[in-house]
Design goal:
Structural class: mainly alpha
Helix content: 25-40%
Radius of gyration: 29 Å
Number of helices: 13
Low-confidence stretches: 1-5, 23-33
Number of strands: 4
Order of helices and strands: HHHHHHHHHEHHEHEHE
Length: 309
């Protein structure tokens, strides 16, 4: 009995040891050289070596946030120029042979973004880039960002907002030329204040759901509530049920020129609907056209269920 029991224990120990070895090997290979299965420190030459040929680019690199990578203790594959371009020994020994190093020019959007996400995929801002509309339409990181020749230093953008976004979203540009619009072109608000350009789970990559409208409430705090008497569309459909977010020909960015026609889209007698219809004494051809003349707290009220005050 004892010899059998000892052999059984030995098998368990060997199995545990094998699992630990496999796990540690997998962890090392997954982190080595940003996805490479092998890592050889002798293949890396350091950013100072790159400077001997690329001095202009190196001097600009020193002024960017990427310069901080030179101080990391994670290894040379995470530091400086070679953190993005890969090991440079063969490139140097080949007299600057571009085929011996990763050059972003000419690479596919997937290849470029994969390089950048090697460092940037772990933050909340970039975690959903794979499902973003930009990625699905082959817009890579360097379509908007330039590590060496950025015009906006904070995020290394190739151009400032909103001109950068207008490069593709030409249809939206026209909305900001309407008589009533958000002050995007005046610099009071940016596209990225409302949209997460790196992707998310929501339509149009907005930073909050339509029903919550946390994006709108960042500025329009007086509309946030909670209220004792809530206006249902604000909580179910969001601000965009009545307002166009970018710009409108109507005051207050409303979808309709006449207030009563906007309200009647919901407040019309409809079978099996719990939305109250228009009262019979409201003559729409005369003084009852502007509903908010009486229902002044249309976004919600703490005192009156009809939003009179």
């Amino acid at each position: 009995m004892m010899p059998g029991l000892t052999l059984r224990r030995l098998r368990v120990v060997l199995l545990i040891g094998l699992l630990v070895f496999c796990f540690s090997s997998s962890s090392r290979s997954s982190t080595a050289d940003k996805g490479s299965t092998t890592y050889d420190s002798t293949l890396y030459v350091g950013s100072e070596t790159c400077k001997t040929c690329h001095e202009d680019i190196y001097n600009k690199f020193e002024t960017t946030p990427h310069w901080k990578t030179t101080f990391t203790k994670k290894g040379p594959q995470w530091q400086g120029c070679e953190a993005c371009h890969g090991p440079g020994k063969e490139h140097v020994e080949g007299g600057g042979d571009k085929s011996k190093i990763f050059v972003f020019e000419g690479k596919t959007a997937e290849q470029v973004s994969k390089r950048c996400l090697g460092c940037h995929e772990y933050g909340e801002e970039h975690a959903n880039f794979d499902r973003s509309q930009h990625n699905l339409n082959d817009v890579s990181c360097i379509s908007c960002h330039s590590p060496h020749h950025a015009k906006e230093k904070q995020f290394l953008l190739v151009n400032k907002q909103p001109e950068l976004c207008y490069g593709c979203h030409t249809d939206i540009k026209q909305d900001f030329n309407r008589p009533f619009r958000h002050r995007v072109e005046q610099g009071l608000i940016q596209c990225s204040d409302c949209h997460n350009q790196h992707g998310g789970f929501l339509t149009r990559q907005v930073r909050a759901t339509a029903s919550q409208d946390q994006v709108c409430f960042k500025c329009h705090t007086e509309k946030a509530g909670p209220f004792v008497f809530e206006h249902v569309p604000v909580k179910t459909e969001g601000c965009s049920s009545c307002h166009t977010p970018h710009g409108s020909t109507n005051p207050r960015l409303l979808k309709r020129a006449q207030m009563n026609t906007l309200c009647l889209e919901c407040h019309t007698l409809t079978q099996d609907s719990n939305v109250p219809g228009l009262p019979s004494f409201h003559n729409q051809s005369q003084k009852y056209q502007a509903c908010t003349s009486c229902h002044v707290q249309i976004h919600g009220s703490n005192f009156d269920e009809f939003f009179f005050k």
